[in-house]
Specification:
The complex is a heterodimer of chains A (about 425) and B (about 350). Chain A is α+β, with helices and mostly antiparallel strands and about 425 residues long. Chain A contains 11 helices and 11 strands. In chain A, β9 and β10 form a beta hairpin. Classes of the chains: A alpha+beta (about 425), B mainly alpha (about 350).
Chain lengths: ~425, ~350
């Protein structure tokens, strides 16, 4: 008997609801209150705002997976899993289950009641009706999945390798790599925690968790909603991201295109780089402001390039070839020199801050879950990372984990699933 | 110092009124974050281990937060009142530090000779003791490893930065021997690694007089030797096999003291930095001494420390670092240059 049989049953039961039907239930909880509408209307503004944001849903089925171009919500967990499935068919079934459960959770809605002597179909931590809460589940594959255990060697995305140890990295294998990466994002922490639990349950016996890291976004504290949120060095992060509304640009920088040297199934997917980067924040806090700003190349308060006054101002490097305004070793200058030659190296960053308490030496363990998407990890991320190898900021950070993954193209319809292209 | 004055005004604690009475002191002294415990008995109100105080703040207002640019609440940062020091003033301190370093390197060589002897006779405990001596003496150099070029990697490099990790042929030096002595190595490998290391240390001793160290590098090392201890040594990152983070912190403290002594006459009378540094280094020294007493007169491995000892060591080290971060600013040799404005912003 396959280790998944029982879950398959549950999965099938849930699937009976169908994602359309489930989605239709989402608004129901908001209106069908036992206490009637008047009490709901009497709730505070804050309560109503929270209810509204809980009701927001991001569709799971689309040409590209959600959680890539969609705006990053406040909460995230990245969880890497290793395949322990005994055979190819069980692996395929587990990946199908993963998508099925993710589709249900992202749509939200009620789950079926089972007989009272059975464990419930859902852990229930969000109540009897799951709110979607802008949940996205993004599924990606590591190079190790293509190592021959499951007959997938000829499906390996051409640029997918194990993330190398860059200079100054201290990668812990127990916090790095993995066969499958699941990126879970939502507005509220409890939604993310619930999703981790439900998804892990849906694939138990086939995919076993290897490492995970929780992240959060800084609140958008202004001055305008457009300003990028801050990382834990207090600098704005993501300012120079390419415009996700520009579909042609996304086709040049993010999505693997059809009819290239890549395997056909990969078209519409993208390479995902995740790096857990410890930031030595106490040390950073003991550095003079001018030195901090020179390391980054931006003002800490406004996020403007040095010499400027507004976050999105062009740093105009061509007018500053000696680095008198923005040092030649500044992070923003090395990461994105804004030249014609480096235009096709740009990546889409979608990182989150993390806080893991403190280490055995009493030092705060805070940092960045760097997450980025790019069409060609060699042409883009690796080229940037090489330029950054000797930036002065390296003394204040230690990359400790993460990996290279390939975020598969989206599931096209409710009967499809992320990764189905691997098995046809 | 101008950075010190600006960067300290970040948070909006509720007890502004309570703080205002210590503001007069706080603006001119970098007070370390203390862990209480009656530390003030040894210090004055000026250099005591009290929590770092922040001056008066402007209240939060949504309008300020939304104002375009939101360039903080106070406009331009205050201008430093200190005249920069002439770079030539550092020549004496750096020369003195180099003489001291040469002495320490000779001690490293003595310990390595003892290590070689212990390895030849197969006495592991004695070999480890010799390694500890060599490592501590190396850390007594403390300052400006970057100035030693590729010899730093050969003598003190970690395997993490090498492509082949611990099996990389370039993994040599003190940590290679640490791995071999605590994990075991094929016969003969430790001996050849020790000989190689002795050669590299001798080479450095020869090069040392010609090593170039800038005033800024030197003043920064006064702060960053112990930053390395906090980041890489107490955490075990750089001493994964021996776990000798306490020994390494004590050695870093000694190196810091040496650098501070060479700079004492330059620091004197500038912003009260030296008084705060002295107070907090003394406090760290007595925390280390009490740990040493408690563990039979030797440095315990980090995992032998009790919870209270860990807290005391981490906390006093942190407070020392909060004091030392004032040193580079106090010893500035130039006024920070004004950054040219970007031409043609769209406004």
């Amino acid at each position: 008997m396959s280790p998944l049989d029982r879950r398959q049953f549950v999965g099938r039961s849930l699937a009976l609801l169908g994602s359309g039907g489930v989605g239709a239930l989402t608004g129901v909880e908001l209106e069908r209150s036992d206490h009637g509408e008047s009490e709901l209307a009497a709730g505070t503004l804050a309560e109503r705002a929270e209810q509204r944001s809980l009701a927001a849903a991001v569709p799971f089925d689309a040409a590209h997976q959600a959680g890539i171009l969609t705006p990053a919500p406040a909460q995230a967990t990245f969880i890497a899993l290793d395949a322990i499935a005994p055979d190819r068919q069980t692996l395929a079934e587990a990946l199908r289950q993963l998508s099925t459960r993710a589709r249900q959770l992202t749509a939200g809605g009620a789950y079926p009641l089972l007989e009272v002597d059975d464990p419930p179909a859902d852990s229930g931590t969000l109540g009897p009706i799951n709110a979607p809460d802008a949940l996205t589940v993004t599924i990606a594959f590591g190079s190790s999945l293509f190592d021959g255990r499951y007959g997938l060697t000829d499906r390996r995305p051409r640029r997918l390798v194990e993330m190398p140890n860059f200079p100054n990295d201290a990668l812990d294998p127990a916090r790095s790599h993995g066969d499958v990466l699941v990126q879970i994002c939502a507005g509220q922490r409890d939604t993310v925690v619930h999703t981790v639990r439900e998804l892990a349950r849906s694939v138990r016996g086939a995919l076993q968790q290897r490492w995970s890291i929780d992240g959060f976004s800084s609140a958008r504290r202004g001055p305008s909603p457009r300003n990028s949120p801050r990382n834990l060095f207090a600098f704005r992060d993501g300012t120079a991201n390419p415009d996700v509304e520009d579909a042609a640009l996304m086709d040049r920088l993010i999505w693997v295109q059809p009819r290239t040297t890549e395997p056909a199934w990969t078209a519409g997917g993208t390479y995902q780089v995740v790096r857990t980067i410890r930031m030595h924040v106490e040390f950073w806090d003991r550095v003079g402001l001018a030195e901090q700003e020179e390391m980054i190349g931006r003002r800490r308060d406004t996020g403007a390039p040095l010499g400027g006054s507004e976050e999105f101002e062009d740093p105009s490097y061509e007018l500053d070839p000696q680095g008198r305004r923005i040092p030649l070793t500044a992070h923003i200058r090395l990461a994105n020199p804004r030249t014609a030659q480096t235009a096709d190296q740009r990546i889409l960053r979608r990182g989150f801050n993390y806080d893991r308490g403190f280490d055995s030496a009493g030092q705060l363990d805070q940092g960045l879950v760097f997450a980025a998407f790019n069409q060609d990890v060699k042409r883009q991320f690796t080229a940037i990372q090489r330029r950054l190898a000797e930036e002065p900021m390296v003394d204040y950070i230690t990359p400790v984990g993460g990996g290279y993954f390939f975020a598969a193209p989206g599931s096209r319809r409710p009967t499809d699933w992320v990764g189905s292209g691997l098995f046809v | 110092v101008f950075a010190e004055l600006t960067a300290r005004r970040l948070l909006a604690p509720v007890g502004i009124a309570l703080l205002s009475c210590v503001v007069a002191f706080a603006l001119f002294t970098a007070l370390g974050v203390g862990v209480g415990n009656g530390a003030n008995a040894a210090g004055t109100a000026v250099h005591g281990a009290a929590p770092r105080a922040i001056g008066p703040l402007q209240a939060y207002s949504e309008a300020d937060a939304k104002r375009n640019g939101a360039a903080g609440v106070g406009g331009a940062p205050p201008v430093t009142q200190l005249a920069p020091l002439p770079a030539a003033a550092f020549a004496g301190p750096i020369a003195r530090y180099k003489r001291y370093s040469a002495g320490q390197l000779r001690i490293v060589l003595e310990h390595l000779a003892a290590l070689e002897g212990a390895l030849r006779t197969g006495r592991l405990a004695r070999a480890r003791t010799a390694w500890r001596g060599a490592y501590a003496s190396w850390l007594h150099l403390g300052a400006v490893y970057g100035a030693f070029g590729d010899l730093t990697q050969a003598i003190d490099g970690s395997p993490g930065v090498l492509a082949g990790g611990v099996s990389d042929p370039r993994f040599t030096g003190l940590h290679r021997l640490e791995r071999d002595l605590w994990r075991g190595a094929p016969a003969g490998e430790e001996l050849s690694a020790t000989r190689r290391l002795r050669g590299d240390v001798r080479l450095l001793l020869k090069r040392l007089p010609g090593v170039q160290i800038t005033p800024l590098q030197y003043a920064t090392r006064a702060h960053e030797i112990l930053e390395d201890a906090a980041r890489d040594l107490l955490s075990g990152t750089d001493v994964p096999w021996s776990d000798e983070g306490v020994l390494a912190t004590a050695a870093g403290l000694r190196a810091t003291r040496e650098v501070i002594e060479t700079l004492r006459s330059l620091l004197d009378g500038r912003e009260g930095t030296i008084e705060t540094v002295d107070f907090n280094l003394d406090r760290l020294a007595s925390a280390l001494a009490s740990i040493r007493r408690e563990h039979g007169g030797g440095w315990p491995a980090v995992d032998r420390l009790s919870l209270r000892e860990n807290e005391l060591l981490d906390g006093t080290l942190g407070a020392a670092l909060e004091a030392l971060d004032g040193v580079p600013g106090t010893l500035e040799t130039k006024v920070p240059p004004t950054i040219p404005s970007l031409p043609n912003p769209s406004r």
